Amino acid sequence: MIEVTVRALVKPTERVERVVVAIERIFPDLTLDIRDDMVQGYGGISSLRVFRKILRDERILDTARSVMLAGRIGDSYQFRISKPGAFMGRVGFPPEEEPLGSIHVEISGDEKVLDWLAPRTVDGKPVMEIELDEVEP
Questions:
Q1: What residue spans of the chain are helical by DSSP H?
Q2: For position 117, what pLDDT does the model report?
Q3: Per residue of the chain (137 residues), what is the pLDDT tens digit?
Q4: With the CA atoms of 17, 22, 26 and 31 taken in that order, what torsion angle do they form, in degrees rounded to the nearest 10?
Q5: To pair with 83 at 20 to 30 A between CA atoms, which of 32, 40, 105, 126?
Q6: Residue 121 to residue 46: CA distance in whole angstroms
Q7: How far apart are the first and last CA of the chain?
Q8: How many helices (H) and strands (E) does the chain have?
């Protein structure tokens, strides 16, 4: 079973609504817990469809795969994405926490979820695409 957890701090200079929009543009279908100082979201594989599409549209499969593998802990992938980029519907992987905070993502699932999201590539093209039902029947 694939589980997705997303969280982002809301800094005093930010509006919580904008942080919610940033998260929802990349990870729709999450159940959100919205507070004044933090937004957390929980969901399943359906919340990753837009994220997956953006990785292909922006041609950042290799980067995404590297970032996710670097943050692998057992059957979990932990990484962060840029909050301002997400607000614009784009995905960027900052090397460290951003001044306004980043969006922290944790995806739990075996390596098939990684292969579905960001497959291995040759010359920037996926070697083999797997279907959603192969990831989570």
A1: 16-26, 49-57, 61-70, 83-87, 111-117, 132-135
A2: 93
A3: 899 999 999 999 999 999 999 999 999 999 999 999 999 999 999 999 999 999 999 999 999 999 999 999 999 999 999 999 999 999 999 999 998 889 999 999 888 899 999 998 887 777 778 876 666 65
A4: -30
A5: 126
A6: 23
A7: 9
A8: 6, 8
Phi then psi dihedrals of residue 113, to 5 deg: -65, -35
pLDDT at residue 34, as a whole number: 95
Looking at the DSSP bridge assignments, the partners of residue 5 are 42, 106
| CB of 55 closer than 8 Å to CB of 118 | yes
Spatial separation of the C-alpha atoms in residues 10 and 7, rounded to whole Å:
10
Neighbours of 74 (CB within 10 A): 7
Could you give the 3-state DSSP secondary structure of residue 67?
A: helix
In the block, residue with structure tokens 């800094």: 11
Give 31's strand partners.
Answer: 42
